[in-house]
Task: structure prediction
Amino acid sequence: GNSVTQMEGPVTLSEEAFLTINCTYTATGYPSLFWYVQYPGEGLQLLLKATKADDKGSNKGFEATYRKETTSFHLEKGSVQVSDSAVYFCALSDLSGTYKYIFGTGTRLKVLA
Amino acid sequence: KAGVTQTPRYLIKTRGQQVTLSCSPISGHRSVSWYQQTPGQGLQFLFEYFSETQRNKGNFPGRFSGRQFSNSRSEMNVSTLELGDSALYLCASSITGTANNEQFFGPGTRLTVL
Result:
């Protein structure tokens, strides 16, 4: 079945460091891919998305490219801030007609000043 | 435009009791999905409703049920609560629930079972 695998956290970085959070997926067909972010005490917010191979999603300095050949959708940011501290979830939309999203287990990011 | 709202935000129950959680989607959104979030399991899909019909259900026991009303508001019910049901329950709405539709999440209801 479809699945999403994320790198385990927590990830601890200093402010202005480069961020990469790895995400790989297993799916039939061409699902849409998403990154969601969850700040403490809040629900999930969509950070970015890509709907087809080679698409690059970007938002708030974060980027991720839909790589079909490596079935990956890694999240990157060139210079993180303390305010980026949150849990990041990679997700895909199930195309089997089941109308559900499949999420990774989440990666906690902590940015130190 | 108001976001997804969930009530109550916090609940404390004891084993064996039942609980009902409520979700009001964004106006115009007809699809509502429910997820259970726990530290060990991450986000697990519970079920999805569209136009008052359950279109899909995750791998949860029959104690977990839901429904959707004609105004798209949704409720989920958990009967005979167990300690393992303690979790953050998230509701998400989207326009149609199809693959490219963004899901908008509510803040969640944190359920604690004692």
